[in-house]
Amino acid sequence: MVQVNVRIDEELKEKADALFDELGLNMTTAFIMFLKASLREHGLPFNVTTDVEERILNKQLSEALLKNNPETVKLEVDSNGNIIVDPDLHPDLYDWVING
Question: Are 37 and 45 contacting, i.e. CB atoms less than 8 angstroms apart?
């Protein structure tokens, strides 16, 4: 075993500690999970982008899904990567996909 020291902002650490505590984790376990996920993915286990529009769209889609109970939302993606939503099943989500 080796010890790793990381300098981070105090507020960031407090917020992360609170989140991990809710998840039943501590900082060490969360960090180890991050490292293992990175190795499994052969990269970072999340998208890193400078594309502000993509981040906004991802956030908006997540919010729209949450409004429509994500366990019951059925999404399809066409060959161009466009989201296909049944307007009869999910009218609010369909409106968001079409109109933003």
Answer: yes
pLDDT 10s digits, 61-100: 777 666 766 555 666 777 776 767 777 777 777 777 677 6
In this structure, are 82 and 60 located in the same domain?
Answer: yes
Q: Comparing 1 with 84, which gets the higher pLDDT? A: 1
Residue 51 class from Cβ within 10 Å (0-12 exposed, 13-18 middle, 19+ buried)?
exposed
Residue 28: which domain range? 1-46
Q: Are 40 and 7 part of one and the same domain?
A: yes
> pTM to 2 decimals?
0.50
Which tokens hold the place of 82?
């466009």
